[in-house]
Amino acid sequence: MSPAPADPLEYKPLDGGWGWMVVIGAHISIGFAYATPKVLSIFFNEIQQDLGSSFSEIALISSIMLAAMYAGGPVSSAMVNRFGSRPIVMLGGLLCGVSMITASFGTSIIYLYFCIGVIGGCGLSLNLNASLIIISKYFLKRRPLANGLAMAGSPVFLCVLAPFNQYLLVNFGWRGSLLILGGLMLHCCVAGALMRPVPLPCKPPSYALEKTVEEQPNSGNTKLKKRFVKNAKKFLDFSLFKDRGFVIYLIGSIMFIFGAYAPIVFLSAYAKSQGVEEYSAAYLLSIMGFVDMFVRPGTGLIANSKLVRPRIQYFFSFALVFNGTCHLLCPLIKSYAFLVVYAVFFGIGFGMVFALIFECLMDLMGSQRFPRAVGLVTIIECFPMLLGPPAAGNYTLIMHSTYTDINQSKSAKHSSVNIEHALVLCS
Amino acid sequence: MERELCLSVCVIQLWMESATRKLQGDTRAASLLQLKGEGGGLVVLLHDAASRETRKRSSERPAHRGDRGIIIMSAIRKQLSFQILLLFISCRNINTKTLGATAPPLDPTAPLQKLERSYVLKGDSHTEKVELLNPVSLVLMCTWTGSQNKPTNITGFWSKDGKEIENSRVTVQLENKQYNLKRTFSIASEADLGSYSCDFGGEAKINFVLAVPQMGDERDKPIVSYLGDSVVVPCKLDDSKPTPNTWNWYRANETGKEQIIAGQKFSIKNDEKKTKLVIHDLTADDSGLYYCGAVYGVGITMGRVELKVISFFEPLKPFIAILVEVIILVAAILLYEKSRSKKDYTAAGNGATDQTNTLSSGENNGPEESSSMRQRKV
Prior knowledge:
Chain A has 427 residues and is mainly α. Chain A is built from 16 helices and no strands. Chain B has 4 domains: 2-92, no CATH class; 113-211, Immunoglobulins (Immunoglobulin-like), CATH 2.60.40.10; 223-310, Immunoglobulin-like, CATH 2.60.40.10; 321-346.
């Protein structure tokens, strides 16, 4: 297993001080990035009635937003490397705010696809990648904790925005709610303001930038395009595929993401099929979110400890196995009390995995290669994430099976991911 | 008959009104009033022969014969129009009371469909729900197994909505250890629906609740929309319920429900078990309760939707507040950073040596720390 190239840290990461403010900023940014596509579904019923389209057309808004968010990864990483995190997150926040505000005036579904889906998704992708990259720049010793705290933004914002959106919907209708939501998303600009650029020493750290400095005296207008293409290629960096660890991580993460979101989508349907009433079934998801909120920083804290930090990949594998077995045991559950227990364990497993997923990538790739790696990972993750829940839905249709069989297949995938990761450790 | 009487009364009253106005020298009184009553439709056209300056936005309407909508012109002076309105409303209330459903009147000579419902009671009482769609000739049969002591004869009677039906008392004999009561009811209209009970000597009772299929769960949250916008108010019947003959929409006002007629402002789209009321050009007056009625042969089942119309300034205010807050926060953070960097800059000259010292010590610690951290090195 070829080790990662040396990480000459020309500057010592702060590991504290202003770094905690950066963590708050990343928390807000990541929170909006993951929670917004999910909470927008609260408005879909109303929008569907007013615009007179079918439910699948409306649900496509969320999918387009997610797709744009993940697909914009490489572009976002490239821009962060060029301009630093702060302007990118502020631009992302501005884009998100503008997208929601313009969407509130929408009269057709195509307009909403463009505003919320494309523009909103791009804004969120800028936010997400930039936040992750700046954490890797500000922290080294306490990086798992910082990652755990920042990723905790996702369940926190989900738990806060979901009832808040309901309240907005009842009082202002969907147009007013989108307007106010746009205003809230402008807080990503505040998060961006917090992300003070790391003071770089005089020598440019990345060799890509070096090359641009060399070429600059020679380049005229004709060479500008060539340089741009070269830079672009560097950030969709296929040389990363030579790293075995990265490839294994990528394969594992694809399989995990393919199965990860299906249980969330089907949990309430499964509970209802077991005879639980609708309100309690929805409650299960909020239990899961609530547990997730506390598990992520907790996992970060554990991963930071002296015992676990050197073996963080093992811990990540354990989290994946835990997640998988949790789903495997689900078919045995019949009563509501056990479903609640399942939701709690699901929350724990989910939180652990997501707290560690980017920390492990940072660990594998090092602070220098992380921006390019995360760009590549997000754009590749885009596909399983979009295909996962519909594929699970089709699976139920084809096999006439219940949620339980899906669970088994997904958890089988999770367990295989665990085996993959064990291989990663041999370096 | 009543309706025609009422309409003619209305006409006379209006003519008298316009006459008095003319006498009073009111040049803007209504000059022509035309009433057309056709089976189910009432058309009123008011012409303003005189001035136009008080005409409101949507009120200008040329006369259209055969137009079934009620169009009230606002060009008439407020006092007159208010009085005319009052007359109309009072007339219309009588109409709705006597007409009931807007379904075509029943042919009294056609034989009614026969339907039978029966129940065997073992305890004290029981309630049975009967869903009816169309007018039927309903036969209700009650059977009671009797109590501890079984007298040979008991008195049984029928009641509707708690009140005993006249001439329904009969002496019931014990046959095969059971008491039987049977009666035929003609259910022709909404007034005939209700709770029918057969009572066995005051000791046992079976209630049959006759009703049209009820609407499912109603949404308790109002639909919110904006001034000048158009909104779609939906209403849906459960899939398990039968398809109604048609749908009607009503608007709640001070004196009950007023039927909405499709026109420029309202359009109704019916689709078997779903219906949509589209309201264009919303105004603040359009807020309130709307009722959708699924019309069956024998009655109407109502669903309720609330509409709230707000101006765009309402969400705009919190939005502007949030915007101001964001700008203040961003400015505060950036200014704080600038002031701190200025302080660092002035102190930099003094502390330059200190900084380089800390840097070198940091690098020395680096290799030692890497053994505890999982940072790969070549």
